[in-house]
Amino acid sequence: MFGLEKPAGRREPGGSGGFPKMASVGDFNVLSSSIPATKVELSVSCRNLLDRDTFSKSDPICVLYTQAIGNKEWREFGRTEVIDNTLNPDFVRKFIMDYFFEERENLRFDFYDVDSKSPNLSKHDFLGQMFCTLGEIVGSQGSRLEKSIVGIPGKKCGTVIVTAEELGCCRDSVLMQFCANKLDKKDFFGKSDPFLVFHRSNEDGSFTICHKTEVIKNTLNPVWQAFKISVRALCNGDYDRTIKVEVYDWDRDGSHDFIGEFTTSYRELSRGQSQFNVYEVINPKKKGKKKKYVNSGTVTLLSFLIETEVSFLDYIKGGTQINFTVAIDFTASNGNPSQPTSLHYMNPYQLNAYGMALKAVGEIIQDYDSDKMFPALGFGARLPPDGRVSHEFALNGNPQNPYCHGIDGVMEAYYRSLKSVQLYGPTNFAPVINHVARYAASVKDGSQYFVLLIITDGVISDMAQTKESIVNASKLPMSIIIVGVGPAEFDGKCSELDGDVVRISSRGKFAERDIVQFVPFRDYIDRSGNHVLSMARLAKDVLAEIPEQFLSYMRVRGIKPSPAPPPYTPPVHVLQTQI
After folding, report:
1. Which UniProt keywords apply (predicted)?
2. Distance between terminal CA atoms of the chain?
3. What is the pLDDT, as a whole number, of residue 206?
4. Please, what are the domains in the chain?
5. Residues 92 and 73: beta-carbon distance below 8 Å
6. What is the pLDDT of residue 394?
7. In angstroms, how far apart are the furthest CA atoms of the chain?
8. Taking CA 234 as the corner, what is the angle to CA 232 and CA 239, rounded to the nearest 5 degrees?
9. CA–CA separation, 429 vs 224, rounded Å?
10. Phi and psi for 184 in degrees, rounded to 5?
């Protein structure tokens, strides 16, 4: 209709096998933050659209827009087909989107009644629109969002149903085991110490390393341990893409001797143990020099087992709830809230550092919390009327019910608290961590997961107790995000809590898993300290570890996702036709 031959947002297939190209997984590059967590397919249906045609029903089309991060401009992402004569369309063409848990992706669905062949939307009748986020769709029950269409004053424009489904083509992992026979002897005093290196081919003919086996010492007939690798890492989802396997003899100084190589593909390997998966190891230099050269040994595939990986989305679809708690540092080291130098400065015209961090991160998380009710706590302040110091008080003043409605409710309670409490100290994290841990300890069946966001100036007083609390909490379904605001040097204490480099320990006990993510807020604001350069970048870096932390808890506990509710089946419309 509008020159769209391919489904909206879909990429060209790659490789000879006709499998879709996938983004590379970035297993070996921690900085490849633009790699999508997953791809989701959005299906759109409408009910009771406005009828703009005099003698027949509307001929609707849906146009999807996404919002640019920087200038907030709406950009067209794609269009469905046009369906003739229906007010209840179920569009066949899908929107396929990269889905990042850690980014807030704003979407706008516009609907038009198509009156001509013109691709110019202004030539068609506007039927209304719907705004939402991708997280809101995915986070809805069964990943099915139903919302009213708005945009034409005084008219009921009907409803839209958007369903998200994760594309499963690259969620497999494989468990493989190899052995070798009669490899070339490379060591003068002993046999070889062989290991395998796997590479996947790139379109430009280059190769990217994707796996190394362990070294087996002093043998020409090694049997390597079975290893697990994602299909995405191994061949980017293209089953016919060349996989090159090199065999080396390990040397202590790192100058490993090349024994030989062979090539295969995922499709060949998937045949499993058979005569097809015994490979001659060839050393091209030797082959060129020696006429009688046959090979440098053989490598045999012993086993090949496909496993489908469950994702963060599977649990969300199955009904797992993310419970978000906010804890704000009200200690005196933040400065007097009436002074512009304070991190808690109550500026009537713009958000302070705490407000900016709270809004950016909170808006992402709230899409995944079905009731949008967040417990909001403060610590390190003297409370009215008697001035007692508290390290765990409700921002709304109600300890029995510390819940605030949405992030706006949390912001309101925060600003109200600033007016009534006295900033004091010391900066104790353990009480708020233990507060959330008590809730997390009561629900360990995978139905709920708890995220504590601590916003602080980073001067921790109870380091030993905080470490102990984190080590204990690492056995529970919870994660802790610490956002450091202000100019303090966070390199010491706060960074120590983030277990990315060294796993945190207390009294000789190590944390079961890494549950803390620390982010210095100043990395994301301009020199004046008044503007976040990228709200999306901040939120992304703060939340990027949550899905893996979540999955690590579920894996250790052997908790599988619940089945999602049955998909929505639209009624059949007799009048529906398509062009």
Report:
1. Calcium, Metal-binding, Phosphoprotein, Repeat
2. 8
3. 64
4. 38-167 (2.60.40.150), 172-308 (2.60.40.150), 320-329+336-370+423-557 (3.40.50)
5. no
6. 96
7. 95
8. 80
9. 46
10. -60, 140
**Which amino acid, residue 69?**
I
Angle at 422 between CA 380 and CA 418, to 5 degrees: 95
CA distance 543 to 366: 12
Reduced 3-state DSSP string for 345-391: CCCCCCCCHHHHHHHHHHHHHHHHCCCCEEEEEEECEEECCCCEEEC
Closest residue by Cα to residue 324 from 395, 393, 376, 397: 376
**Do the beta carbons of residue 429 and residue 460 sit within 8 Å?**
yes
Residues 6+ apart with CB under 8 A from 569: none
Nearest Cα residue to 51 out of 127, 114, 121? 127
Cα-to-chain-centroid distance, residue 378: 29
CA distances from 70 to 108, 350, 372, 412, 502 (A): 17, 19, 27, 26, 35
DSSP state of 546: H
Burial status of residue 577 (CB atoms within 10 A of its CB: 0-12, 13-18, 19 or more) = exposed
Cβ–Cβ < 8 Å for 441, 472: no
Which residues, 6 or more positions from 310, have their beta carbon under 8 angstroms from its beta carbon?
Answer: 551, 554, 560, 561
Specify the DSSP class assigned to residue 511.
P
241-293 pLDDT, tens digit per residue, is: 899 999 999 887 667 899 999 999 999 999 998 888 999 999 999 988 888 99
Residue 486 or 386, more confident: 386
The pLDDT, as a whole number, for residue 574 is 54
Contact 47, 88 (CB under 8 A): yes
* 558, 444 contact by CB (below 8 A): no
CB 256, CB 246: distance < 8 Å: no
Q: What percent of the chain has pLDDT over 90?
A: 45
Whose structure tokens read 């790139």?
202
Distance between alpha carbon 494 and the CA centroid of its chain, in Å? 24
DSSP state of 488: -
- The pTM of this model reads 0.62
Token pair belonging to 385: 């009327």
Helix (H, G, I), strand (E, B) or coil at 100: coil
- Listed range (67-81, 183-197, 392-406) with the worst mean pLDDT: 67-81
Q: Which two tokens stand for residue 47?
A: 């009910």
Q: In the numeric block, which tokens belong to residue 532? A: 């976040």
| CA dist., res. 32 & res. 41, Å (int) | 23
Spatial contact of 62 and 86, defined as CB atoms under 8 Å apart:
no
From residue 148, alpha-carbon distances to 81, 145, 324, 332, 341 in Å are 21, 10, 27, 47, 45
Q: What percent of the chain has pLDDT over 70?
A: 84
Report the alpha-carbon distance of residue 200 to residue 243 in Å, rounded.
5
d(CA 492, CA 498) in angstroms, rounded, equals: 11
Closest CA to 161 of 65, 90, 84, 262: 90
**pLDDT value, residue 379:** 95
